[in-house]
C-alpha cells in the first residue's frame, strides 16, 4: 500500500508555508514563501491576497515534490491562518477589492471609539464575547463599506463577499465555496459564540449585510474538494493560527494550555464545552469544533511585546549582535541586580489593557550592567506570562498544572527555566516545533479518518524538553511584587493632548 | 606615505586575490584611522571595482568593518579576536534546534549538540529521547572529550585544540586510555566523517556524532545521538547504518543553516 500524508497550509502574517506530515506527525517536507507587507500610512498594514494565493499555488506542488509524493498520496489538506485579517472580493470575477487589511492595522481606531459610545455596543460584546476593539474584523468591514458606499449595495445583493484568509483560500482552492470556520468567525465580533452562527444584533450594529458573509462551518470536517493547488484533495480543516497551535499541542482537555512565544506571545487555555467570560481582561474564543462532535472554547491572553523586546535590545540598543546572544549576556550575571523592564511600548495588553501606559526601566543604580538589563529583558516575558496565567486561573477556576510551549523563544533555556520558576509549574516543549501547521494537519487528518481520534493524536505528542520550577517561594513572591510595582510605574504616562 | 610592501605584484603559484586581500588588511592595520575605498585603491594601485569586491568579501567574513556614517573601512572585530573568537553557544543552539528535533523523532534516541569549553564537551542543546519517560535536561553540563562521540568529533577536526598527550581518564573497561590509541581513532573519524563511542563512557550505552561546520568549513560543534547499545548498534557492536545517515544528515543541515545565516 502506498504511504499517505497530510498537508498543512500555514498562511501567516509574513509568509505562507506548505508542510507535509506523515502518520506519526513528523515533518516530511516544507516549502515557504514570504509576501510583501504594505504600510500605506502610519498604523496601516495591508497584504495583497492575490499574491498570497499565487504563493499557495506555487508552494503546493513544491512541497509535494520535496516530499517525493503525488496528490493521490495526500489524504487531506488543513489550513491555519493569520486571524482577523480582512478581505473583500468580487463574487463574479473572484478578484480582491483592494488589499486585505491586516490584524495589526489600527485604522478603525476612530470608528471603534464612536461605536463604543452606542448603547447597543454592550449587546454586541455579549454575543461575540469580545471587547469592541480595532483588533477584530467586523469594524474593518464596516470601514470598507463606509469608504465605498457603492460596495454596500453590491454587498447586499451578495455580489461582494467578505472573508478572512482561510475563507479566501478555500474559495480559491475549491473554485467558489464561500465558507469560514468557527474559530476564525469568532474573531470577527460578528459571531454569536453561543449559537455559533452570525449574530443579527452584531450585523445590525455594524451595518454589515448578511449576504456578504461566508457560511460558518465546524473547524474539523470536510469543507470540500480542491480543484486548484491540490486538485482532487479534500480540505479537512481550517483554524486560526493560535487555535491550530493549541490543537497541535494536543491540548484537548479543559485546563490544558499552551503558549506560543514569538514577537508577541499568545497563551490559550482550553476551557472545555463551557464559554468562560473573562472578568480579568482575557478574550473568550472558540478553540475548535469537530463536525458531529464537541465544541471547545478557550481563554486567550495576548502579550504584545516579548520577542520584540529582545529585537529592540539588539537593534535599538545594539547591546547584542543576534537574538540568541541575549542568553549569553544574561548569564554573565546571577540575577537582575534589582532592575526591571516593563515593555509597555504601545500600552499594556492583558490583563491591564492600559493604552496610555508606556515602558519603563526601573531600579537603575551604578551597579547595573548590560548583563542585568539582558536578564530584565528575559524576565519581562516570564512575568507577563505569570500575569496572564493568574488571570486565567481566576477566570476559569482551573489551576494550570503544566505549560506547553512552542515558538522561537523556546530555544532560550534561561527564559524557559525562569518561566517554570515564576509560574511554579513544569514547562514542557514538544518534539514537534511546528505546532501551528501540525495542528492544521491533525485537524484535517482527523476529519478524513487518517487519524482515528483525539487520543491517537495525543500519542504523537512527545516531550523534547522539560524545565521544572526550582525557585525559592519567598523569592518568587518578592520578585513578583517588585515586577507589579514596576508595572504600576508605567500607568498614566501619556496624557491626552 | 605607504611603504612598498603594500604594493601588490604577481608571484607565480599564488592566488592573486588572497595576496590583494592581505595587502588591504595590512594597509588598514598600518593606519590609525579609517580609509575610504578610493584611498585604498590608490595606495595599492588597483581598480576601485577590484578593491570593492575584496572589501565586500572581507566584510562578509567579519575581517573588515565599514563605518555607517563615513563609509570608511577599518579592521573588523573578528580579525582582532582571531584565535579566541568562537560561535556563541546560544546562537549555535538556535540554529541546531530545528534539525535536532527531527533527528530525535526519526532515530528515537536522545540528541545532544556539543561544543568545546575548558578542554571538555559543553552540552549546548539536548532533546529528550521521544518516549515520554522522565529525563532531565543536561544543557550546560560538561563531558569528557575522549570518551564521547561528540568529543571525538571536536578533537578530530581541531575544534578542541590538540589532543591530550598524557594518560586519559578511564570510565569503563572500553574507554580509550592512551594518546596513541586516541590518535588512531581520530584518524578513523576524519576518514569516515563521523564518530562512534560504544560503552566507553557508560556501560550499556553508545553514541554517534558528526561535525557541525560554520563559516568557511570550520568545525564549530558536533551533533549526535546516544542510547542503549542494542538499539544504536547491531550484534557486532557496529552502529546501524540508518542512524549514522540520520546523524550526518542533521549535521549537514545545521552546517548549511549556519553558513547561510552568517551574512
Q: Notable features of this structure?
A:
heterodimer; A: 497 residues; alpha+beta; 2 domains; 6-stranded mixed beta sheet; 16 helices; globular; B: 263 residues; Arc Repressor Mutant, subunit A; Beta-Lactamase; 6-stranded antiparallel beta sheet; two-stranded antiparallel ribbon; elongated; disordered N terminus
Q: What can you tell me about this protein's structure?
A:
- With 497 residues, chain A is α+β, with helices and mostly antiparallel strands.
- Chain A is built from 16 helices and 23 strands.
- Chain A folds into two domains: 5-242, Nucleotidyltransferase, domain 5; 252-430 and 462-497, ATPase, nucleotide binding domain (Nucleotidyltransferase, domain 5).
- Chain A is globular.
- Chain B is of the alpha+beta class and 263 residues long.
- Chain B has two domains: 4-80, Arc Repressor Mutant, subunit A (Orthogonal Bundle); 89-261, GAF domain (Beta-Lactamase), CATH 3.30.450.40.
- Helix content of chain B is 40%, strand content 18%.
- In chain B, strand 6 and strand 7 form a beta hairpin.
- In chain B, helix 2 (37-44) crosses helix 3 and helix 5 (89-107) packs antiparallel against helix 9 (241-261).
- The interface between A and B is medium-sized, with 23 and 24 residues.
Amino acid at each position: 500500500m502506498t504511504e499517505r500524508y497530510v498537508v498543512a497550509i500555514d498562511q501567516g502574517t509574513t509568509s505562507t508555508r506548505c508542510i507535509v506530515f506523515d502518520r506519526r506527525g513528523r515533518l516530511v517536507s516544507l516549502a515557504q514563501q514570504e509576501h510583501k507587507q504594505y504600510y500605506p500610512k502610519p498604523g496601516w498594514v495591508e497584504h495583497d491576497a492575490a499574491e498570497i494565493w499565487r504563493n499557495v499555488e506555487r508552494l503546493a506542488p513544491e512541497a509535494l515534490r520535496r516530499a517525493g509524493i503525488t496528490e493521490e498520496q495526500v489524504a487531506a489538506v488543513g489550513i491555519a491562518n493569520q486571524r482577523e485579517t480582512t478581505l473583500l472580493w468580487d463574487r463574479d470575477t473572484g478578484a480582491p477589492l483592494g488589499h486585505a487589511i491586516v490584524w495589526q492595522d489600527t485604522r478603525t481606531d476612530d470608528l471603534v471609539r464612536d461605536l463604543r459610545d452606542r448603547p447597543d455596543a454592550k449587546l454586541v460584546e455579549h454575543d461575540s464575547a469580545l471587547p469592541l476593539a480595532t483588533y477584530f474584523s467586523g469594524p474593518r468591514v464596516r470601514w470598507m463599506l463606509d469608504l465605498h458606499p457603492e460596495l454596500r449595495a453590491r454587498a447586499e445583493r451578495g455580489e461582494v463577499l467578505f472573508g478572512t484568509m482561510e475563507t479566501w483560500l478555500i474559495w480559491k482552492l475549491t473554485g467558489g465555496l464561500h465558507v469560514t470556520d468557527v474559530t476564525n468567525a469568532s474573531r470577527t465580533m460578528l459571531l454569536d459564540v453561543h449559537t455559533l452562527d452570525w449574530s443579527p444584533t452584531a450585523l445590525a450594529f455594524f451595518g454589515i449585510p448578511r449576504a456578504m458573509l461566508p457560511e460558518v462551518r465546524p473547524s474539523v470536517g470536510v469543507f470540500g474538494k480542491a480543484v486548484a493547488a491540490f486538485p482532487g484533495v479534500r480540505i479537512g480543516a481550517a483554524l486560526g493560527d493560535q487555535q491550530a497551535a493549541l490543537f497541535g499541542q494536543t491540548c484537548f482537555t479543559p485546563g490544558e494550555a499552551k503558549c506560543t512565544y514569538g514577537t508577541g506571545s499568545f497563551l490559550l487555555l482550553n476551557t472545555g464545552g463551557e464559554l468562560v467570560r473573562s472578568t480579568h481582561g482575557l478574550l473568550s474564543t472558540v478553540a475548535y469544533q469537530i463536525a458531529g462532535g464537541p465544541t471547545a472554547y478557550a481563554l486567550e491572553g495576548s502579550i504584545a511585546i516579548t520577542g520584540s523586546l529582545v529585537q529592540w535590545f539588539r537593534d535599538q540598543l545594539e547591546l547584542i549582535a543576534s537574538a540568541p546572544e541575549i542568553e549569553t549576556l544574561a548569564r554573565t550575571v546571577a540575577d537582575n541586580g534589582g532592575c526591571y523592564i516593563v515593555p509597555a511600548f504601545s500600552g499594556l495588553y492583558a490583563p491591564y489593557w492600559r493604552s496610555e501606559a508606556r515602558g519603563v526601566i526601573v531600579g537603575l543604580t551604578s551597579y547595573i550592567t548590560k548583563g542585568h538589563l539582558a536578564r530584565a529583558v528575559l524576565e519581562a516575558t516570564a512575568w507577563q506570562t505569570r500575569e496572564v496565567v493568574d488571570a486565567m486561573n481566576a477566570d476559569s477556576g482551573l489551576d494550570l498544572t503544566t505549560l506547553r510551549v512552542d515558538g522561537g523563544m523556546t530555544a532560550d533555556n534561561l527564559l524557559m527555566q525562569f518561566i517554570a520558576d515564576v509560574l511554579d509549574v513544569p514547562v514542557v516543549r514538544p518534539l514537534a516545533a511546528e505546532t501551528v501547521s501540525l495542528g492544521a494537519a491533525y485537524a484535517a487528518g482527523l476529519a478524513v479518518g487518517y487519524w482515528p481520534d483525539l487520543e491517537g493524536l495525543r500519542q504523537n505528542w512527545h516531550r523534547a524538553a522539560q524545565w521544572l520550577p526550582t525557585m525559592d517561594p519567598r523569592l518568587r513572591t518578592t520578585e513578583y511584587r517588585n515586577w507589579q510595582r514596576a508595572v504600576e510605574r508605567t500607568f498614566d504616562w501619556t496624557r491626552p493632548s | 606615505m605607504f611603504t612598498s610592501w603594500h604594493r601588490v605584484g604577481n608571484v607565480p603559484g599564488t592566488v592573486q586575490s588572497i595576496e590583494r586581500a592581505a595587502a588591504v588588511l595590512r594597509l588598514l592595520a598600518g593606519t590609525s584611522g579609517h580609509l575610504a575605498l578610493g584611498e585604498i585603491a590608490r595606495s595599492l594601485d588597483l581598480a576601485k571595482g577590484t578593491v570593492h569586491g575584496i572589501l565586500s568579501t572581507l566584510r562578509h567574513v567579519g575581517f573588515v568593518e565599514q563605518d555607517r556614517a563615513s563609509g570608511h573601512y577599518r579592521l573588523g572585530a573578528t580579525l582582532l579576536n582571531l584565535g579566541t573568537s568562537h560561535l556563541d553557544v546560544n546562537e549555535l543552539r538556535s540554529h541546531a534546534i530545528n534539525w535536532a528535533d527531527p533527528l530525535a523523532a526519526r532515530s528515537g534516541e536522545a540528541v545532544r549538540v556539543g561544543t568545546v569549553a575548558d578542554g571538555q564537551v559543553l552540552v549546548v542543546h539536548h532533546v529528550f529521547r521521544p518516549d515520554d519517560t522522565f529525563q532531565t535536561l543536561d544543557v550546560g553540563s560538561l563531558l569528557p572529550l575522549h570518551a564521547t562521540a561528540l568529543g571525538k568529533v571536536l578533537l578530530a577536526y581541531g575544534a578542541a585544540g590538540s589532543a591530550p598527550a598524557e594518560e586519559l581518564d578511564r570510565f569503563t573497561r572500553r574507554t580509550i586510555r592512551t594518546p596513541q590509541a586516541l590518535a588512531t581513532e581520530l584518524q578513523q573519524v576524519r576518514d569516515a566523517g563521523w564518530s562512534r563511542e560504544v560503552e566507553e563512557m557508560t556501560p550499556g550505552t553508545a553514541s554517534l556524532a558528526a561535525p557541525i561546520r560554520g563559516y568557511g568549513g570550520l568545525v564549530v560543534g558536533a551533533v549526535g545521538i546516544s542510547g542503549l547499545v542494542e538499539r544504536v548498534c547491531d550484534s557486532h557492536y557496529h552502529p546501524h547504518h540508518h542512524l549514522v545517515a540520520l546523524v550526518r544528515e542533521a549535521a549537514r543541515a545545521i552546517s548549511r543553516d549556519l553558513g547561510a545565516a552568517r551574512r
